[in-house]
Amino acid sequence: MSPRRIGAIVVKDVRDAVRDGRILVLLLLPIGLAVFYNGTASDANERPETTVAIVDPARTGIADELRKASRRSVDLTTIAARDAAAARRTVDADDAAFAVVVQPAASGDAPARARILLPENATPTAQSVVALVDDAVAAAAGRPPSSQVSVERLAVAASDRKPTDIIDQATILVVICIVMLLGFVALVVVPMQVAEEIGSGTFGALRLAATGPEILAAKALSGLLYAAGGTALTLAITGIGAHSPLRLYGGALALAISLVGFGLLLGFVSGNPTQINTWGGFIVLPVIALGTAVLVVEDGIMAVVLDVLPFSQGTRLLFDGVSPQEPFATGLVAWLVLAAWSLAGFAALTRIASRRDA
Amino acid sequence: MSDHGGAVVEVHDLHKHYGATRALDGISFSAHAGEVFGLLGHNGAGKSTTIRVLTGRTRPTSGVARVLGEPVPEAMERVRGQINLVPESQTLYERATAKENLDLFCTLYDVPRARGDEALERVRLGHVAKRKVKTFSTGMKQRLLVARALLNAPAVLFMDEPTRGLDPQSARELHGLVEELSAGGTTIFLTTHDMHEADRLCDRVAFLAEGRIVALDTPRALKLQLAGPPEVDVVLKDGRGEHLRLGEDHDGEAARLVELVRAGQVRTLHSCEPTLADVFIALAGRSLDDDPQKHA
């Protein structure tokens, strides 16, 4: 393989993509949607809401202090609980995001004390309110700043780690748009470029000057460039940061690689870019649907199916990449699934290309 | 004509089957350095398949194909930089400019980009180098394909219907270019439907019919195969025409010709020789213009 020849074809492909209105739309549509959703969903969440269970046998007035402290950013609802056990049950039942148990001071000079019962999967809104408890307890006791607040982390079963509770709506929509972008690139844009080369005969002209594997490698690389560029641009515009760059950027790249072999195959077999463009939406629909399904499907046969599909594993990596709570706790299995699909795609492409060549 | 050296294109018992269809059914020939070798045949006769095999873009079912002494497609990497093709269809990047089209192939062939500028000037497209190819006429696109094929100064140039779509002036210029390249030692492997073009340009021609070579020789030798007694067409000054056979069995008609010439009645006199097209029809059973489907 000649890097010079591969590079020349990549440069040509990228330049051609910029000049092809159909491809530009396919690349810019998901990015535009991500920006739109990020803006509108953020507006919708401007006043996040949360509920706190409060145990305050001494009636210190902490509930009022907490509401006062958080009123600028959060609509806070408080539920009075009789004791710590009742508060815990309220939290476990998801009726409150966390609980504050105010403990009576040992003496008049002793610091006011409180215990926070905080689930592991507490939402960012709940955590922001937790940060205000210290001051609220002190204010309620009339003795700023001498207070002692301890936080007790409540273990949460894996099945209760709902990604939609952990990740805000805007981020979810942006990640889904990135999955859409990767699907469009690998399964529509790359096949269109290959099909156009075959349909117009330029593939044959390239074959005179470069080998078949070099041409296909260049097409795959072009696709990965669009995927990487589009993902980086989307994240930059929406301001969504990477908690785990490896999972976010690596996951996006791995998902693109796992699909691009099939995309090349589709273009190679079809040879008709217009047909691919027309049906592109239907081709990408399963990618988006199965990618999004990881947010709602928790068990059953569908969960098993999602475990072995590249779209869903790729999407899980992306969500874990943007969220500190890593809602899917993706590990080696996700990477292995994506690697297996990558190998399968390129193996199928090689087999079909060899047959066509013969 | 050029001095022919060793064989630079060799084909021996070449078969290419697509399922039950025998696109090539055991053809053998060779072309020498500097030779203009013509391959003539109907659509579907196997001309393009032969070129596809020789340019390493398809694998033969059996048989041997060598270009510049190297087996193709196995040793294509050693041959790649020394061959080129003017394809039958206009395989250009329409959204790119003429220069960008050539720059890409300059990089692929690892030759300086100045070579692209020279090639554009050679085919009279230098003034539109920065124009998008989609704005070009068919003839301009065909000339750009020729320019692209010259980038790597190929030792063997395959030309598949190179004058199709060209105006007479451009076709004549291309003929001049073919003769120039051939004189410079480039082997030209030409397929064409234009019998006059083949007659004028080719040192030797092969007639291909249904995957088989039915004749291979110089155009003159092929025409002589059909040549009978000499015949002439005479146009008289009064506008009438006469067709006269001058062979041994037609003494009277020879005497008539002498009489007309002596009487000063002859305006034009043309000898009637069989053309390459006549030879093709005689050997292949139909003209190149016939639709093979009608004969299926």
Task: Report on this structure.
The complex is a heterodimer of chains A (358) and B (296). Chain A is an alpha/beta fold and 358 residues long. Helix content of chain A is 67%, strand content 10%. A five-stranded mixed beta sheet of chain A has the order 2-1-3-4-5, with helices on both faces. In chain A, β4, α5 and β5 (147-154) form a beta-alpha-beta unit. The longest helix of chain A is centred in the middle third of the chain and has 32 residues, at 169-200. The model of chain A has no long low-confidence stretch (mean pLDDT 83). By secondary structure, chain B is of the alpha/beta class. Chain B has helices spanning 47-54, 76-79, 98-109, 114-122, 138-150, 168-183, 195-201, 219-226, 251-262, 276-284, 292-295, and strands spanning 7-18, 21-32, 36-41, 62-67, 70-71, 83-86, 156-160, 187-191, 204-209, 212-217, 231-236, 241-245, 266-271. In chain B, the strands form three sheets. Chain B has a six-stranded mixed beta sheet with strand order 6-7-8-3-9-10, with helices on both faces. Chain B has a four-stranded antiparallel beta sheet with strand order 2-1-4-5. A three-stranded antiparallel beta sheet of chain B has the order 12-11-13, covered by helices on one side. The longest helix of chain B has 16 residues, at 168-183. The radius of gyration of chain B is 22 Å and the shape is globular. The A-B interface holds A 4-5, 7-9, 12, 15-16, 19-20, 200-202, 204-211, 357-358 and B 55-59, 76-77, 80, 83-85, 87, 89-96, 100, 104-105, 107-110, 148.
